[in-house]
Amino acid sequence: MIAAIANFLNYDIYNLELTTVKDNSELIKLLLETTGKSIIVIEDIDCSLDLTGQRKSKKKENSEDESDSDDDSGGKSNNIVSKSLKEKEKENKSDSRVTLSGLLNFIDGIWSACGGERIIVFTTNYVDKLDPALIRRGRMDMHIEMSYCCFEAFKVLAKNYLDIEEHSLFGRVKELLAEIKMTPANVAENLLPKSVEDSEEKCLRNLVEALEKIKEEEDGKLKIEKKEKQWQWIKSVLG
């Protein structure tokens, strides 16, 4: 999607790895070195840096410090050892000193307005883990969920990969996609002809078989869970 946007707008793409950025000043410097019409991509923002838990971690550290001071002298040596281990873990985790405040200024602070028709794109698999200040409306103008494949998306893929708009198997695919969760990438993989001899019929049947296999597995799991609940109920009744 990012490549399609860049091609359509004729923008440059910059892939920014936050873990390699030393501090907030270097982050701003990198921003100023990008071209005006560009897309800046920060992939897996929830994994790039521990920005999401900075506020909570500070509160936790303060509470730990208070609890350590309340301990008796006999436990002081253990506290010192555990504290030093925690400090080493923090140092080993990342050498970057980029803060949440620095990243927010990078996105929509005064420096972000310099020379700019830039688009900043964050990707994440865990949007709930991100700090609300990072993804609020007005800062992140659009939230796009790359969800599972629906029937309308399947028709686009069928047109792109097989050059067909209608087929007798479309009805079965529609039924299965309404029940089964499959990503567009997996759908495309099944639709993609593996050889020149593969017909549209064979590719569609490959997709149907893959969906039916997932359905069987999920139905089997549901049956096992149902039996386990029944056994638990019987055990509770028998006492």
From TrEMBL:
Q: Which domain of life is it from?
A: Eukaryota
Domain AAA+ ATPase At3g28540-like C-terminal as annotated: residue spans: 149-219
Q: Where is the composition biased (Acidic residues)?
A: 63-72
**GO molecular-function terms, A-Z:** ATP binding; ATP hydrolysis activity
| InterPro entries, A to Z | At3g28540-like_C (IPR058017), ATPase_AAA_core (IPR003959), ATPase_AAA_CS (IPR003960), Mitochondrial_chaperone_BCS1 (IPR050747), P-loop_NTPase (IPR027417)
Pfam families in UniProt: AAA (PF00004), AAA_lid_At3g28540 (PF25568)
What positions does the domain ATPase AAA-type core occupy? 86-147
Q: Which UniProt keywords apply?
A: ATP-binding, Nucleotide-binding
Q: Where is this region: Disordered?
A: 56-90
What family does the database annotate? Belongs to the AAA ATPase family.
According to UniProt, the name of this protein is ATPase AAA-type core domain-containing protein
Q: Which organism is it from?
A: Linum trigynum
